[in-house]
């Protein structure tokens, strides 16, 4: 699988990971975990608006929101994640998806291959068991975007 | 030469107080420069592979249960040469005192300690309360990764028999006490994995016949430390019905949660013969023609067809 089917921002992140050695990749994932934005005020007090991804080893909640792009064109999707600081691996991957996919259209998000997490080159360092939660997170985002997109087309 | 053993009122009631260290004791030892000569080595072992990197006890090295202790190919632990290389790289010598701590009430730390014990490492202790208690007490953390001088660790073959049970051992053990440390939903067979955890694929739900259900976390207090001897006795002698001198097997899903219970039974209550069945439910729940009981009752030992 190559990165040329990925949205540009995600492709760039994948390239960054692939250019690094294994320990450096873990360090980069840690930086993504620190960079994951907090939930906006309006979602903070509303856990019922978020869905838990149960395949993740640590509690991870996410939701999406539609947003008209500034140019008035296609609908974009905003991504929101919540994961505790004690779960840096889970947070790190949420950070990757946030930076790589936030604000994109349904078509762009749905074009991401389901096994994209494997492109990060972390499977050996993180183990397949832990990678499964990451794949599930991407799958959940794609399912929610696909469902929301059907309602609006 | 091992490091002096801690004396305190809580530990003194346990069968083997030398297997525990308190956060106060460790902080004072670090203050006194205990890590400088490799006699004392502090190891962090967590569920999350990156948690150590977010901040750890100053001087502590990291051992990951999955990438460091499990064999990459066979479902087994690393062998003697690999363990010796791992220990030496972490600055651990055969005569080092090793204090292990981790997240989630030392769940994974107890697992690492159990693996150290498979290799007969003599002086390995658990930091009572683990990472959460250390942090809750506002003690120092650092993101500096230590570069310890290599330890001297001989190649020691694992000695599984005293503390590790395989499926065949468990079949032969039926009729003697078993402790199932999984959640009540896993015990009854309602589900085959932990609530909110990944499905790890067991074809059948339920428990091993006659096993008592004592979820592992009941042995831990709110601050993550082990409950007192009296409380543990109420749990395992009272509720589970264990008697002095019993041979016991503990199991969970892959053998990590049951390491925490194994430690309590062996070192805190002093049962001589306690084994951890690390194949646990991911093996038993998939094995062909092994007996299983569904529901909340312990059930009875079936007459096995041979």
Description:
The complex is a heterodimer of chains A (153) and B (306). Chain A is 50% helix and 12% strand. Chain A has 153 residues and is mainly alpha-helical. Chain A has a single domain, classed as Sufe protein. Chain: A. Chain A has a three-stranded antiparallel sheet with strand order 1-2-3. In chain A, a hairpin with a 6-residue loop joins β2 (61-68) and β3. The longest helix of chain A is centred in the last third of the chain and has 24 residues, at 128-151. The termini of chain A are far apart. The model of chain A has no long low-confidence stretch (mean pLDDT 88). Chain B is an alpha/beta fold and 306 residues long. Chain B is 28% helix and 10% strand. Chain B is built from eleven helices and nine strands. Chain B is globular. The mean pLDDT of chain B is 94. The interface between A and B is medium-sized, with 28 and 15 residues.
- Portion in strands of chain B: 5-15%
The main β sheet of chain A shows up as:
3 strands, antiparallel
Count the DSSP helices of chain A.
Answer: 7
User: Quaternary status of these chains?
Assistant: heterodimer
Number of DSSP-assigned strands of chain B: 9
Fraction of residues of chain B in helices? 25-40%
The number of distinct structural domains of chain A comes to: 1
Q: Write the element-wise H/E pattern of chain A from the N-terminal end onward.
A: HHHEEEHHHH
Radius of gyration of chain A: 15 Å
Strand order of the largest sheet of chain B: 1-5-4-2-3
- Strand neighbour order, sheet with most strands of chain A: 1-2-3
The CATH architecture of chain A would be Alpha-Beta Complex
CATH class of chain A: Alpha Beta
Radius of gyration computed on alpha carbons of chain B: 19 Å
Give the rounded overall mean pLDDT of chain A: 88
Uncertain runs of chain B are none
Approximately how much beta-strand content do the residues of chain A carry?
A: 5-15%
Major sheet characteristics of chain B: 5 strands, parallel
């Amino acid at each position: 699988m190559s990165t040329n089917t990925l949205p540009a921002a995600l492709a760039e992140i994948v390239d960054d990971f692939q250019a690094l050695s294994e320990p450096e990749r873990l360090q980069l994932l840690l930086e993504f975990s620190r960079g994951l934005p907090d939930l906006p005020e309006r979602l903070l007090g509303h856990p019922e608006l978020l869905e838990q991804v149960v395949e993740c080893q640590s509690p991870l909640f996410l939701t999406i929101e539609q947003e008209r792009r500034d140019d008035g064109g296609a609908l974009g999707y905003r991504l929101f994640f919540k994961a505790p600081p004690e779960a840096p691996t889970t947070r790190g991957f949420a950070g990757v998806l946030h930076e790589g996919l936030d604000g994109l259209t349904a078509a762009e998000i749905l074009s991401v291959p389901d096994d994209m997490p494997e492109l990060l080159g972390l499977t050996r360092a993180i183990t397949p068991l832990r990678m499964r939660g990451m794949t599930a997170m991407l799958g959940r985002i794609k399912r929610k975007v696909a469902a929301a997109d059907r309602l609006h087309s | 030469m091992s490091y002096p053993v801690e004396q305190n009122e809580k530990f003194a009631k346990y069968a083997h107080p030398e297997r525990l260290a308190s956060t106060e004791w460790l902080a004072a030892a670090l203050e006194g420069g205990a890590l400088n000569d490799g006699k004392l080595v502090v190891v962090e072992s967590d569920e999350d592979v990156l948690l150590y990197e977010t901040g750890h006890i100053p001087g502590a090295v990291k051992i990951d249960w999955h990438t460091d202790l499990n064999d990459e190919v066979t479902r087994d632990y690393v062998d003697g040469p690999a363990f010796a290389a791992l220990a030496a790289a972490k600055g651990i010598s055969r005569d080092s005192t090793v204090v292990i701590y981790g997240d989630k009430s030392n769940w994974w730390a107890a697992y690492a300690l159990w693996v150290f014990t498979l290799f007969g490492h003599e002086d390995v202790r658990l930091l009572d309360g683990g990472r959460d208690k250390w942090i809750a007490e506002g003690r120092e953390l650092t993101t500096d990764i230590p570069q310890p001088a290599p330890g001297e660790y001989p190649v020691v073959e694992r000695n599984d028999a005293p503390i590790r049970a395989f499926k065949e051992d468990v079949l032969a053990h039926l009729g003697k006490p078993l402790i199932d440390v999984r959640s009540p939903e896993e015990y009854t067979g309602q589900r085959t994995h932990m609530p909110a955890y990944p499905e790890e694929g067991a074809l059948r739900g339920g428990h091993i016949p006659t096993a008592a259900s004592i979820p592992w976390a009941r042995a831990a207090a709110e601050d993550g430390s082990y409950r007192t001897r009296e409380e543990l006795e109420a749990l395992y002698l009272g509720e589970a019905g264990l008697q002095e001198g019993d041979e016991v097997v503990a199991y969970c899903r892959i053998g990590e949660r049951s390491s925490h219970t194994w430690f309590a039974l062996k070192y805190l209550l002093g049962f001589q013969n306690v084994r951890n069945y690390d194949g646990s439910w991911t093996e038993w729940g998939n094995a062909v023609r092994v007996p299983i009981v569904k529901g909340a009752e312990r059930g009875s030992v079936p007459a096995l067809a041979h």
